[in-house]
Design a protein that fits this description.
The chain is of the alpha+beta class and about 220 residues long. The chain has two domains: about 70 residues; about 120 residues, no CATH class. The protein is built from four helices and seven strands, in the order αββββαβαββα. A hairpin with a 5-residue loop joins strand 2 and strand 3. The longest helix is centred in the N-terminal third of the chain and has 69 residues. It is elongated and about 95 Å long. The N and C termini lie far apart (about 125 Å).
Length: about 220
């Protein structure tokens, strides 16, 4: 009987040790998990800081762009053109009462004169681009003074898709204010170079800028 009692006591001791070891193992696992959780928290905090920094950077860029937009100054592409002559020319057709507005200006950059059409009382389309007056003179000097020519020769000096460009430009060059070409006796749509072309060139070159801004 004494032996049995001894064995029971040993058995109880063994059974008591097992839970203790199990608890120690569980504690080790919990402790080993703590650094991982801390690392995850740290990564999350870094990501959050990076996100905040990125948002702040985007906001700063947007603010700089807005300031640049507010400080933007509109540049007038015609600011270098100083108007020296404005007028209106009758169209080539005697049946039409339309008037073609035009402007002659001195370019302050290259010191040369340029011509452009500015309006049409009849509403027909045309190009408002500047045409070099020197190019017009060069073209007219190449023409035979006794041979009539068509308005189509002016395609060499004026661009744009409007079919009215060359006829309107011819009308302007034929008006009294410009008088670089004359109407041919053969047809109202044919032209002759003005025999006094050189004189007209000198007259136009002496014109001074008007005390008004360039027409739009």
């Amino acid at each position: 009987m004494a032996v049995k009692a001894k064995n029971t006591k040993a058995s109880d001791k063994t059974s008591t040790d097992k839970p203790i070891k199990a608890d120690e193992k569980l504690n080790d696992e919990i402790i080993s998990d703590l650094p991982v959780a801390a690392e995850v928290t740290e990564v999350a905090e870094v990501a959050e800081v990076a996100e905040v920094a990125e948002v702040a950077e985007v906001a700063e860029v947007a603010e700089v762009a807005e300031v640049a937009s507010d400080n933007k100054v509109d540049i007038d592409p015609d600011s270098q053109y100083k108007t020296v002559l404005v007028g209106q020319a009758k169209t080539l057709s005697v049946k039409s009462k339309s008037l073609i507005g035009f402007e002659l200006a001195l370019n302050s950059d290259d010191k040369c004169c340029y011509l452009r059409m500015t309006g049409n009382s009849n509403g027909g389309l045309f190009s408002k681009e500047w045409v070099s007056l020197d190019a017009v003179f060069t073209l007219l000097e190449q023409q035979n003074q006794d041979k009539p020519f068509k308005s189509s020769i002016f395609k060499a000096v004026i661009k744009g898709g409007s079919a009215n460009n060359v006829s309107f430009l011819s009308a302007v060059l034929r008006c009294d204010e410009m008088s670089l070409i004359l109407k041919s006796e053969k047809s109202q749509f044919l032209h002759l170079v003005n025999p006094l072309l050189i004189n007209q060139r000198d007259r136009l070159a002496k014109l001074k800028p008007l005390p008004t801004s360039t027409l739009k």
